[in-house]
């Protein structure tokens, strides 16, 4: 039994600021691409400290925290962290930003609007970067296996296995690595 509650994406429009805080735990790059169009906090899951978050936002132990990620898996991990620290009113927004967008919630970000500004126009989405990197590795590995050494066929085999794992678990190791690349750093001050 999880130590948190869930909420449907279409219910967040009825939340009032005094009802708690919405927390987005996706990476900065994902958040920059697409984010809720309403007031919310953003802290990537790998930087989340529930106690510090609650103190910084002036929230007590009984305050409601509504957690969001892309589809809900990282939000569940974050909610478990809150529950482990004794915060009993954490809620996972089911389906994450994808469900929010699907049910008509206002969404902003450079992946949503072509008029987001010049600094975003040249950035390639993370999903597209993963496809490019996986395709390049699979193609190169297969080509080298055919021309140099058959053992190099392990490269596309590994990439294919990683893609299957990412599809089943919704955890993409290549995406996590790519978010750390210098061209994907988001300047939070802008």
Report what the structure shows.
With 190 residues, the protein is α/β, with parallel strands linked by helices. The chain contains eight helices and seven strands, in the order ββαββαβαβαβαααα. α3 (73-84) links the parallel β5 (65-68) and β6. α6 (126-147) runs antiparallel to α7 and α6 (126-147) packs across α8. The protein is elongated and about 65 Å long.
Strand order of the largest sheet: 1-6-5-2-4
User: Number of helical runs?
Assistant: 8
Order of helices and strands: EEHEEHEHEHEHHHH
Radius of gyration: 19 Å
Total number of β-strand segments?
7
Q: Tell me roughly what share of residues is in helical segments.
A: 40-55%
Spans where pLDDT lies below 50 across 5 or more residues = 114-120
Instruction: Tell me the β content.
Output: 5-15%
Terminal Cα span = 41 Å
Mean pLDDT, as a whole number? 86
- The class by helix and strand makeup works out as alpha/beta
Question: Key features?
Answer:
alpha/beta, two-stranded antiparallel ribbon, single chain, 190 residues, five-stranded parallel beta sheet, 8 helices
Write the layout of secondary structure elements.
Blueprint: E1 5-7, E2 21-24, H1 28-33, E3 35-36, E4 41-42, H2 50-56, E5 65-68, H3 73-84, E6 90-93, H4 96-102, E7 107-108, H5 118-121, H6 126-147, H7 154-169, H8 173-179
Parallel strand pairs: 1-6, 2-4, 2-5, 5-6
Antiparallel strand pairs: 3-7
């Amino acid at each position: 039994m999880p130590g948190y509650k869930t909420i449907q994406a279409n219910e967040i429009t009825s939340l009032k600021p005094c009802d708690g805080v919405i927390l987005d735990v996706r990476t900065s790059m994902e958040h920059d691409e697409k984010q809720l169009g309403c007031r919310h906090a953003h802290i990537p899951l790998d930087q989340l400290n529930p106690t510090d978050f609650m103190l910084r936002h002036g929230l007590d132990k009984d305050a409601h925290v509504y957690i969001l990620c892309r589809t809900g898996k990282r939000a569940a991990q974050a909610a478990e962290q809150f529950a482990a620290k004794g915060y009993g009113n954490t809620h996972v927004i089911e389906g994450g930003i994808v469900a929010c967008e699907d049910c008509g919630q206002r969404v902003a970000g450079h992946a949503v609007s072509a008029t987001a500004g010049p600094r975003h126009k040249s950035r390639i989405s993370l999903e597209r970067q993963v496809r490019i990197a996986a395709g390049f590795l699979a193609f190169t590995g297969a080509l080298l296996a055919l021309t140099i050494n058959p053992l190099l066929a392990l490269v596309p085999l590994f990439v294919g296995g990683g893609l299957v794992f990412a599809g089943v678990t919704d955890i993409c190791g290549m995406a996590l690595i790519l978010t750390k690349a210098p061209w994907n750093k988001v300047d939070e001050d802008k």
